[in-house]
Amino acid sequence: MSTAQAQLLLTELAGELGDAASGSPLPVDRVEAVGARLAESRFVGSEVLGRSVAVLGGYFGADASELLAAFTTGYLRAFRAWLLAEQESVRAAEIAARRATEAQLRDSEARLRAVFAQAGVGTGISDMSGRIIEVNAAFAHMLGYEPAEMCAMAVPELTHPDDPPEMWDLYASLIRGEHDNVQVEKAYSHRLGHAVWTNLNVSLIRDADGEPQYTLVLVEDISERRALRERLHYRAHHDQLTGLPNRSRFFDALSVAFADPSARVGLCYVDLDHFKSVNDTFGHAAGDELLVQAAARLSACASLPEHLVARMGGDEFVVLIPHPHNLGEVAGLARTVLDALARPFDIHGNHLTITASIGVIEDRGQHRTADELLQAADTTMYWAKAAGRDRYSVFDADRGRRENTKAELSAAMPASFTRGEFFLDYQPIVGLGDERLVAVEALVRWRHPELGVLPPGRFVDLAEDNGHIDALGALVLELACRDSKRWHDLFPAHTPTVSVNVSASEVADPTWLGRVQRMIAETGIPPDRLQLELTERTFMEAEGLPLQALRTLSETGVRIAIDDFGTGYSNLAYLGQLPLHVVKLAGPFVQRIRTPETVNRTDLLVLETIIGLTHALGLTVTAECVETAYQAERLRNLGCDTAQGWHFHRPMPAHRITDLLAEPAIDGSRRPR
Ligand code: C2E
Ligand code: MG
Ligand code: MG
Description:
By secondary structure, the chain is an alpha/beta fold. The chain folds into 4 domains: about 5-90; about 120-225, Beta-Lactamase, CATH 3.30.450.20; about 240-395, Alpha-Beta Plaits; about 410-655, Alpha-Beta Barrel (TIM Barrel), CATH 3.20.20.450. Helix content is about 50%, strand content about 20%. It has 25 helices and 21 strands. The strands form 4 sheets. An 8-stranded mixed beta barrel has the order 13-14-16-17-18-19-20-21, surrounded by 4 helices. Strands 2-1-5-4-3 form a 5-stranded antiparallel β-sheet, with helices on both faces. Helix 13 (about 370-385) links the parallel strand 11 (about 355-365) and strand 12 (about 390-395). Helix 1 runs antiparallel to helix 2, helix 2 packs parallel to helix 4 (about 65-120) and helix 18 (about 510-525) packs parallel to helix 20 (about 545-555). The longest helix is centred in the first third of the chain and has 55 residues, at about 65-120. The radius of gyration is 57 Å and the shape is elongated. The termini are far apart. About 30% of the residues are buried. The site of ligand C2E has 24 residues, from strand 14 and strand 18. It holds the Pfam family EAL. This is EAL domain-containing protein.
């Protein structure tokens, strides 16, 4: 009520009292009504009654006490009624509020219950003793039960054989309150027996004091997703054609086997022999069928569950034997595989036989990585192929190392040319009569930055294989011709012949002849001071153009020698047809007459025949590898012309040859030592 309204009301009530007070009999009722109206008009402050009585007391005069009583009575009655009404409305509001809260709570509980009951996600609550308090239909039906049936169970009854032990340790620590949430992939047993794979999320529910009260689980059925994942995994780890584990699965298994570095691992690397010809002859469908059948036979050979047969691609398979007792066990399996494949295959009505080559290796993870082991097994398989196929070879670390450095040497060769790592030593060749130095044989060496000086046996064949032999041969010829020219300039009267070894593939190169001729012309050496040594094998291979090249050189005066004669075909009849000047008797021949004890009549007879025939053909004979005075003596007696060997000189650098040539002749002969 505004001040103006209050004034209006009070003015009205004052007027009423004025009217009433002047009336008679005493207007008790009207005064009482004014009192009541004051209270009804919400003038209910603590001072209202007191002040009103004080003012009215003076106003009412003689009848004041009676009228005041009436006023007070009227005021208090109305005040009391207002108060009661006021209290009542507060209580009603309170009740309404409580009811609303209760209704809200009921609603929210019903909502929660509906969510719990109808949720697609399996949900359950259990207490700290493992008693299942509640599960929703989704959870129960996932496992083939009704919710009530599951509520009769306890959590430990939900164990599955695939549960890893850590899972239950984790659950225990959750119960102890050490975690608030655990998430795992877990299998449950369906009522019908099969496994239901789920994503399980367990949360700990604590009370207001933080004490664990319940566990809440949320389970999602991932069986299908898991099956798909497993299918994809299977496909990624198995060969489509044969169904065998593939390369990637094999490497997984190998790293598991290698997890303990001291554990031994065995491998059989199997490659079918001439598989390509099956494809070519019978078509790819037959080839595929053969692979499928061979794969099945291989699988049957793997007698133990831990053996793994994998297809590495094409016609290559591997059998992994984790922790074999010994190498024999691995080799035994290789034998079994060979036997299993030996039976003919029935491929679309054709009977096919096929063999295999197998590399066998047994090793520890400490020695080799998985890749290295496989590489070694593969290399060993090629040894089996090289040895004639249809067999197994066992890995030999020494041979492996040799072949390994061969590959490394081969790769290092191009750079070694530019770095000038190849150089020549010369071995003197002396006349057997007077031991005068008449010739030197150029012997190439490789000063390898890490391996030191390598003999030609380590890299000449390699250069033939990798195509660097032409460059090597050209370099050797150039170095030898330059040294020869220097000796010729220094010692024109007794310039030694320089004998250079030439390999078959050099001679076969159509540009070789031109190169040799150019080198002779450029260095200006007398052609008859150059000798080319070719092995018997080289001559046998040299037909047509190569032989023509040798003839051309021979005609210009270049001397041609057959090297290591006697190690190959020793075809004496053939000698006459070659453009030859010298026959070099191979070391093994000479070695047989090393001492009086080792010599026998036949050896001497053979030597005598060769020397005699060679002479008859107008050729000279040089003996190699003369290591003893006895050999020198014998050879001299047999009529051998010249010789080289440690008995006279070891191979040496060019400047030492220069020193030897400079030594004064003793008794008219040069006897350099
Ligand atoms: P080769 O032509 O028969 O050379 C003789 C080999 O016998 C040399 O070995 C020499 O050091 C060794 N020798 C010399 N005297 C004795 C001895 O009294 N006892 C024994 N046990 N051995 C002796 P090297 O230098 O290791 O050469 C080996 C082979 O490498 C040579 O055999 C030759 O076929 C080839 N070769 C060397 N240099 C070249 C080259 O420049 N080009 C080509 N294509 N091949 C070369
Ligand atoms: Mg030689
Ligand atoms: Mg030789």
